[in-house]
């Protein structure tokens, strides 16, 4: 797992992966920690969000991650990018990452809709947590899985093993409290929702995202028996060995 701040944590994604039997190898290149030179002993990669931009190649660790993602994809192991992690994946695949043309942001809970190709991943619409000012364009050769009204590209798949999600399925109540307190100044930006709305919407929609997340992660990592028990057979199944993730 790649984090972008020493104080970050994998939240609900980390919890679910541990429930599925995977160990977590957490690295923070922004704090000087190295990334593995091989993924031979890892079952997959999760790259989380952060306050920096995927265009910040003047930051050594961002430039390093953009190069390293090519290694992760070449290893043919499952890759999951969340927010910045999705934008880094898009950039590594040759697509652009940029702010909304009118300066809008998504900070709070917003709906996403599955595309026809995405219905195997998203059985229906979801209201999901967002915190970003930039979005990615769709990389060539990838499939758009979910759309949104402000930022149209919300989820994509490249090949069978690499996924980019613009939203934050890892978010917990503790994280919502922390982000809206430490990042309170961001709540005044165009399109952002107020702190009270974040909290009320989290109470309403967090459980549905949680019900989606566990079978998605099980299918993504090829734990097919768990995935089918949780969600039925309509999940992306990827072969992967258990181990560090």
TrEMBL record:
<protein>
    <submittedName>
        <fullName>Glutamine amidotransferase</fullName>
    </submittedName>
</protein>
<dbReference type="InterPro" id="IPR044992">
    <property type="entry name" value="ChyE-like"/>
</dbReference>
<feature type="domain" description="Glutamine amidotransferase">
    <location>
        <begin position="38"/>
        <end position="174"/>
    </location>
</feature>
<dbReference type="InterPro" id="IPR029062">
    <property type="entry name" value="Class_I_gatase-like"/>
</dbReference>
<keyword id="KW-0315">Glutamine amidotransferase</keyword>
<dbReference type="Pfam" id="PF00117">
    <property type="entry name" value="GATase"/>
</dbReference>
<dbReference type="InterPro" id="IPR017926">
    <property type="entry name" value="GATASE"/>
</dbReference>
